[in-house]
Amino acid sequence: MSGSNHTNRAGESPETVATPTNTDDETTTTEEGSELERSIGLVGGLSVGIGTMIGAGIFVFPGIAAGEAGPAAAGSFAIGAVVALLVALPASELATAMPKSGGGYYFVSRALGALPGAVVGLSVWLGLVFATAFYLVGFGNYAAAVLLEAGVGLGGASVVVPLALVFGVLLTGLNLFGTENAATLQNYVVGLLLTILVLFLTYGGLDALGVVGQPSTPESFLPFGPLPMFTTAALVFTSYLGFAQVATIAGDIKDPGRNLPLAMVGSVLTVGLLYIVTIFVATSAFGSAQLATFGETAMVEVARSFFGVPGAVLILLAGLLATISSANASILSTSRAVFAVSKDAIIPKFASRMNLKYGTPHVALAMAGGPILVLTASGEVAILAEVASFLHLVMYGLICVALLAIRRDEPGWYDPEFRVPAATFVAVVGALASFVMIAFMQPISRRVGAAIMIASGVWYKYYASDVSLKGAL
Amino acid sequence: MSDDRPDTSGDLAIRDPPRVLVPVEVLEGQTIPQTLVEFLAPAELVLLGYHVIPEQTPTEQASMQFEERARAAVDDIAAAVGDAHTDVETRVAFTHDEDRTIDRVADEVDATAVLLPNPAGDISEILVPLRGIVDVGRLADLVATLVDGDDKRVTLWDLTVDESTALLDQSERTLRDRGLTDEQIRTESDDVEFPTRAIVDRTDEFDIVVMGEGKQTLLTTVLGDTSERIAEGAVAPVLVVRRDRSEDGETDG
């Protein structure tokens, strides 16, 4: 819809496929009158949100977080949940007004303009790359633990990163060539995971409270003082990135006015509750110092302490499933993030090409899978997680600012089905909380994140500075 | 429509003229055989060109690249069909779930029947399996409307387990009332264990199968609609008469 002179360096201009106003519960209608079917329901939306998040919070972080904050790590997860909710509400409102692929990038670029949009769009692409690499390393830890449990000799060498890389290649390939109905499978995987976790945590919770088994002696809630609770909150915030992934598939969600807010808020509440109980159970079973020595697979030891070997095996399998489902959902979100910026001519249009034979976006998937493998090779769990959170938090803050901007002078087309109550308050607190959380990260994560944002801005100035997106539907 | 028939439109259980939804997987090069187009001449056609994409691809992305091609292909088919039909509506859809899309469009256009295409030659032998009391009136009405002329023969095949011939009698009476001759109607009755298999096995004797869509049961939810399974195995096209949506008021989720 932009004028012909608003082009990028390659002479491409943003493409409008369909305006957000041409949307009903079941389809989006394109400018030429074709129908785009919305086929993901509430269960599918929840499964994307929960499936993305659950791998990190339960199966990777408990040991690490308890080591840094003690039992107060439960408080860290609670802080994360509150921040995520403060952003999920504005994101829900914007998504019901603009139920389009691209999620946060789309809102920010339309409400605040092309430069913030481009920075968010490119940062989130890379943020998702960092997150996926993090999930893959988490998977590698579980796969290595499975080998160990099975008594397969490792010859002393760590197999975590090689296993993560192999699986990264496998998942990317599966998305490139697989045309089977993977979403239904994902729904069942998430359902199975939730069942295992609820049973396990219920038993563990009763045990910790002394209802069954031996009551455990609680250690001090804040063994290291209050500050580590906040720095740990910044570290584990990666466990809450998934709700925004629901917004990136907004264009495919049925009845978006109802399902988008429910899926985003519902998935944050579900995983938040599970995370807090998990930390409570884990720190009751072992002291936090001992948990920290178990590292990424601490939950396996917690399960072993309750149920012996069968419990350990069950949680190992659950961990494999959860980290795979997180990594896979993130690869898909990455490819959609690439599509969203490419459609708007922020990067070459070539990136949104797909092949007719498989019907998959092969260029975007390659732009996801390639960098993911490079980062996975680093094997740095904490830094990968923090940079991913940094880049997402910048977007979250700007989503809140976008809501403020769009509410201030509501354009005629703006007609969200869901309106945040006390929007100004929620958005201001949400934006501040997002930016403050960044302040608690390690300096190296902040530097890497800031460098990526600056590079994104420079790219925009160089390649697409004439592209204007503000209010361009 | 032929004029030498008694005008019974007031009593029809289906809309007149009937409207047939023809889904075509348009970028896969699927087309509609001309003989099938001629057979459907008494009906209005809604041509739905659709393209199925895997879930990893946003529908928006697919439409950006393939919309023009899909629309051009649908227009081509519509032009070819236009010789026999004056009234062809076209729709184009991109979807992750073709069943949902076909169902939705059929609802929106109030389609009497949906065509599940298979290759077809000249159409003269029509198989009408009767599997239950549901919609027999609509089924017979549609068959009667489509069979204009003396060159086509209808085989009514009762597959219900009970001994009663009420279904056959009712259908035969409708066809006769609508002007079909004795030579054009044949009735058969069989008690088979697997009706779906039995129908598939006989499709090579016939040029088209016209059947009701039947009820949703646990089995159809697990295995897919009976008519779809028949269309997959059959060598002939299958025309599925839809339930009367105005009466059951049920919304498919």
Automatic annotation (TrEMBL), chain A:
Keyword terms of this UniProt record: Cell membrane, Membrane, Transmembrane, Transmembrane helix
A cellular-component GO term for this protein: plasma membrane
Pfam family, one: AA_permease_2
Transmembrane keyword on record: yes
Region (Disordered): 1-37
Record keyword Translocase present: no
Record's compositionally biased regions (Polar residues): 1-10
Membrane topology: Multi-pass membrane protein
Major subcellular site: membrane
Compositionally biased residues, Acidic residues: 23-34
InterPro entries: AA/rel_permease1, APC_superfamily
Localization, UniProt: Cell membrane
Molecular function terms from GO: transmembrane transporter activity
UniProt superkingdom: Archaea
TM spans (from-to): 40-66, 72-91, 112-137, 157-177, 189-206, 226-250, 262-286, 306-327, 363-383, 389-406, 418-441
Name of the molecule in the record: Amino acid/polyamine/organocation transporter, APC superfamily
TrEMBL record, chain B:
Annotated Pfam families: Usp
Domain UspA per the UniProt entry, residue ranges: 174-242
InterPro entries recorded: Universal_stress_UspA, UspA
Domain of life (superkingdom): Archaea
SUPFAM superfamilies: Adenine nucleotide alpha hydrolases-like
Name the record gives this protein: Universal stress protein family protein
Annotated source species: Halorientalis persicus
